[in-house]
């Protein structure tokens, strides 16, 4: 193993050396071994050989830095990101247009790099980068402006389109998303996460693709908010308390995204894409109505 955690040579009989000759589970095990090697170097030395998606100390610090922001401060950094995440809703125009090759509710990931200063406070964030499938079905990326192009970010947000009712709830969601990323750092290295990171939802996109792959059987569906995995649960409530959490879980378990599981979040926001309210908007309306009734009485 190299000092940077990369495995340069190996001698074993458990799986073929060439990835194309391995089973999907074999490739997943090799990936897990490489991630664990980098994690081990981080734990045992002062060197941090971790890319942004695996940067355990960086993700922890960014999560805390975002949690410590006031809503106004958070909005100053992430207002465009909020609009981008809401852009599956027909009334919202994304700050960064979707490529023409991406169909409605098709796979598209919004990447935002976050940089901290020496005090572990947010120094800058990048523009919104896009990751999507091109006309040939190959994963590609469009990189936009970055404040520090020669510097590795402390963490990278990896967000999909989702309905989140307000800026303050979106701040909570971003913090929760980073908890999911921290979960994936441990699981990706073959380790059980600490209890506070045993949550359900999308974190690292690379791990999500493995969880979602039926041919990779060594992982549970940690990315699914409605998954039934002992010791893990959805802890983000969309700003609607337990009602919001259960509404999402029940709707997804009943198959609201059955035709295409990846578009379940957008259909929760606006199932028909024709301007009608989606489930979460309906919940929001009900709660607003309940609040009004209580005020009037």
From TrEMBL:
<feature type="region of interest" description="Disordered">
    <location>
        <begin position="1"/>
        <end position="29"/>
    </location>
</feature>
<protein>
    <submittedName>
        <fullName>Uncharacterized protein</fullName>
    </submittedName>
</protein>
<feature type="compositionally biased region" description="Basic and acidic residues">
    <location>
        <begin position="1"/>
        <end position="20"/>
    </location>
</feature>
<dbReference type="Pfam" id="PF25858">
    <property type="entry name" value="DUF7958"/>
</dbReference>
<feature type="region of interest" description="Disordered">
    <location>
        <begin position="254"/>
        <end position="277"/>
    </location>
</feature>
<dbReference type="InterPro" id="IPR058264">
    <property type="entry name" value="DUF7958"/>
</dbReference>
């Amino acid at each position: 193993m190299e000092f940077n955690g990369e495995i340069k040579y190996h001698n074993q009989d458990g799986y073929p050396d060439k990835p194309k000759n391995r089973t999907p589970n074999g490739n997943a095990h090799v990936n897990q071994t490489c991630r664990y090697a980098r994690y081990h170097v981080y734990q045992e030395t002062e060197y941090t050989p971790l890319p942004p998606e695996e940067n355990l100390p960086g993700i922890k610090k960014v999560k805390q830095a975002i949690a410590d922001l006031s809503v106004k401060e958070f909005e100053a950094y992430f207002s465009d990101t909020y609009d981008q995440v809401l852009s599956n809703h027909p009334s919202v125009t994304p700050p960064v247009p979707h490529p023409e090759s991406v169909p409605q509710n098709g796979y598209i990931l919004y990447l935002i790099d976050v940089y901290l200063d020496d005090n572990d406070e947010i120094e800058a964030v990048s523009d919104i980068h896009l990751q999507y499938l091109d006309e040939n079905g190959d994963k590609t990326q469009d990189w936009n402006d970055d404040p520090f192009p020669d510097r590795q970010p402390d963490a990278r947000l990896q967000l999909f389109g989702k309905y989140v009712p307000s800026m303050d709830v979106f701040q909570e969601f971003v913090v929760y998303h980073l908890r999911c990323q921290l979960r994936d750092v441990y699981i990706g290295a073959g380790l059980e996460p600490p209890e506070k990171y045993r949550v359900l939802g999308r974190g690292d996109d690379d791990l999500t693709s493995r969880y979602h792959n039926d041919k990779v059987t060594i992982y549970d569906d940690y990315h699914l908010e409605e998954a039934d995995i002992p010791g893990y649960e959805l802890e983000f409530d969309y700003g609607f308390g337990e009602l919001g959490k259960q509404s999402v879980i029940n709707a997804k378990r009943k198959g609201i995204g059955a035709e295409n599981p990846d578009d379940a979040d957008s259909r929760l926001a606006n199932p028909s894409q024709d301007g009608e309210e989606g489930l979460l908007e309906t919940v929001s309306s009900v709660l607003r109505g309940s609040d009004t009734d209580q005020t009037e009485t």
